[in-house]
Amino acid sequence: MLRRKIRSFCYKVDRLIHKMSAPNAKPFTVLVEGNIGSGKTTFLEHFQQFEDITLLTEPVEEWRNLRGWNLLDLMYKDPSKWAMTFQAYVSMTMLDMHRRPTSTPVKLMERSLYSARYCFVEHMMRQGTLHPAQFAVLDEWFRFIQREIPIEADLIVYLKTTPSVVYERIKRRARSEEQCVPLSYIEELHQLHEEWLVSRTFAECPAPVLMIDADLDLTQITEEYKKSEHQILRRAVNVVMQSPNKLSPKKAITGSAIKIAPRLTL
Fold it and tell me: Residue 187 belongs to a domain with what CATH number?
């Protein structure tokens, strides 16, 4: 009995080592989603302590400076004119993040092409900011990427917030481009995130969802983020053991579990 257990353990270790050394191995990819001001950057910063996790933050600085043009500012000030241009560039920069190679077993991304399409582009379409022809182009571009270019998504972390809470955070952080953002915009984005990730009444949810209460202030939120370590790293190990082309994290799994909503494709 003991010998069989030892052989089984050694076999699992050999499989993990083989996966980590495979040249085409893909990391366990986590998409960190949430409203403006929900604390996505703070969440990613918490995971800097893990040596085997690559963090990819939203390319805001690229949106602020494309050959000297601040597309983010232009979009907020005149969305009817600049929404199409801005979202086209967002798609390109987010696709670059999705496809960026990493040498670590786990990759955490701030937002994704999915939220760009299902939350922000969808909002622009519903509000009439985008002409139907402009929306059609962006939607076809998204569908083409889904069909022709692999977009990895193994887990979604949804930082669930109350619109009024994040609205106050936005005002406190005083990002110049966001000063004209009304509470109604935050509420509408919140509803789209809920429809996509919670009620699942709209669009495709490409991976299981881990929901975290992100209304807490910074003195409390760290404890919630520590709890998420267990689910993220445990699920990463499970996926590795079941897939021939995934890497495996080396860090030990600690903390308690948080409920995960089941995957659902509409």
Answer: 3.40.50.300
